[in-house]
Specification:
Elements (H helix, E strand, L loop, with lengths): L4 H10 L5 H10 L28 H13 L7 E8 L2 E7 L3 H14 L12 E2 L10 E2 H6 L1
Antiparallel strand pairs: 1-2, 3-4
Helix pairs in contact: 3-4
This protein binds zinc ion.
The site of zinc ion has 8 residues, from strand 4 and helix 5.
Length: 144
């Protein structure tokens, strides 16, 4: 059983996406940014799959979108893919600007300090875990 466990854990983690209700809220608040979410085909946009990260980053993503909208982004600006990679947030987009790129970079940096499970920013690390790099706080790490 012990030999099987790590593989199961990896699969369970890899399939994690932000809950549909949270995705719907993002789409409702930022209809232009998330115009492709759930409404495209996998060939048209990776947003077809929704947001491929865990719920703990919802606020981070929501804050980022608020800041982007405050900049009055160019026509056609939208998210192409939002996911977790190597323990950090990745936010890919089209028709951005230098300022938007800066905000996205800041959010991506912030994600390494934000627990992807509960959103806590205390005692978060993304190192030393086998098979799958994740940013987790101490207590979520103990439970995973
Ligand atoms: Zn946590």
């Amino acid at each position: 059983m012990e030999a099987v466990l790590p593989r199961m854990r990896r699969t369970a983690t890899k399939g994690k996406t932000v809950k549909r209700e949270l995705e719907d809220k993002l789409k409702e608040d930022f209809p232009t940014i998330f115009c492709d979410m759930h409404d495209s085909t996998p060939i048209q946009s990776c947003m077809y799959c929704g947001i491929e990260a865990a719920d703990g980053w919802y606020d981070l993503i929501h804050d980022l979108c608020e800041k982007i909208m405050a900049l009055d982004p160019p026509e056609g600006f939208k998210a192409d893919q939002v996911k977790e990679k190597f323990g950090g947030l990745r936010f890919y987009y089209s028709h951005g600007t230098k300022e938007i790129g800066k905000l996205v970079g800041e959010a991506e940096t912030e994600s390494y300090k934000t627990c992807e499970t509960c959103g806590s920013t205390e005692n978060v690390t993304c190192e030393g875990r086998p098979y799958w790099v994740r940013s987790l706080c101490e207590s979520c790490d103990a439970q995973s």
